[in-house]
């Protein structure tokens, strides 16, 4: 950049871009019923957001890109960036386990519509399938150090190694299990209470 020149209204452009992104995501979220989403076009989302379709393509690239952005925002809103700090203040492994389950309940309840569409759409969309798979991988990798810490403290149930414990925690905190239980009539509170108890008994020494 030449000396003496400054970015032209950079804060204003950034704010406008953020507002455009917000409007597009809000418009897309309003169309997230599975049947509606399959027939929704980028042009329809652009019209709902009152922006050009070229802008939507430029920012997100595709409908899968919009869903990916919604999934990322969902994790942020549910508190993924502060979960590690929250776990660090927990007094016991049982407290940590309960906070993990509580976070997942919050995430899955807030994003039930989004998760349903993502799971239903990924079979026909390689990019979306890769994003969902990456979400599962990140969740698994985030949980492994926690379980390793339990193992180091001697907190795991006798006979259970850290790898098995990590796999169990990862599988039982999956969105698939939450969706199955909710469809069976469970409330979010039932899910959180029973899963916390089940995992404590299955993973921790003395259930604690």
What does this structure look like?
The N and C termini lie far apart (60 Å). Helix 5 packs across helix 7 and helix 5 (63-78) runs parallel beside helix 9. The protein folds into two domains: 10-61, Arc Repressor Mutant, subunit A (Orthogonal Bundle), CATH 1.10.10; 69-207, Tetracycline Repressor, domain 2. The protein is built from twelve helices and no strands. The longest helix is centred in the C-terminal third of the chain and has 27 residues, at 126-152. By secondary structure, the chain is an all-alpha fold.
Could you name the key traits of this structure?
single chain; 208 residues; Tetracycline Repressor, domain 2; 2 domains; 12 helices
Q: From N to C, what is the helix and strand string?
A: HHHHHHHHHHHH
Can you count the helices?
Answer: 12
CATH level 1 name of the largest domain: Mainly Alpha
Query: Shape from CA axes?
Result: elongated
Q: If you consult CATH, what is the topology of the largest domain? A: Tetracycline Repressor, domain 2
Strand content: under 5%
Give the CATH superfamily of the largest domain.
Tetracycline Repressor, domain 2
Largest sheet: none
Radius of gyration: 21 Å
Counting structural domains, the number is 2
- How many runs of DSSP E, i.e. beta strands? 0
Extract low-pLDDT stretches: none
| Span between termini | 60 Å
Mean pLDDT across all amino acids: 87
Oligomer: single chain
Structural class: mainly alpha
**How much helical structure, as a percent, in the residues?**
over 70%
Secondary-structure arrangement, i.e. CATH architecture of the largest domain: Orthogonal Bundle
């Amino acid at each position: 950049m030449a000396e003496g020149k400054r970015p032209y209204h950079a804060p204003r452009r950034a704010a406008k871009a953020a507002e455009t992104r917000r409007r597009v995501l809000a418009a897309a979220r309003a169309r997230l019923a599975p049947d509606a989403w399959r027939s929704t076009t980028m042009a329809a989302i652009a019209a709902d957001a009152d922006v050009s379709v070229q802008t939507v393509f430029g920012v997100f690239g595709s409908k899968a890109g919009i869903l990916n952005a919604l999934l990322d925002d969902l994790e942020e809103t549910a508190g993924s960036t502060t979960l590690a700090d929250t776990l660090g203040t927990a007094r016991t492994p049982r407290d940590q386990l309960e906070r993990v389950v509580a976070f997942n309940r919050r995430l899955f309840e807030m994003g039930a519509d989004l998760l349903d569409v993502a799971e239903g759409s990924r079979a026909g969309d390689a990019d979306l399938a890769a994003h969902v798979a990456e979400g599962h991988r990140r969740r698994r990798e985030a949980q492994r150090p926690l379980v390793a810490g339990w193992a180091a403290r001697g907190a795991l149930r006798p006979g259970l190694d850290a790898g098995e414990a990590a796999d169990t925690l990862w599988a039982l905190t999956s969105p698939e299990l939450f969706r199955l239980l909710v469809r069976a009539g469970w409330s979010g509170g039932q899910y959180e209470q029973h899963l916390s108890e089940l995992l404590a008994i299955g993973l921790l020494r003395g259930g604690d």
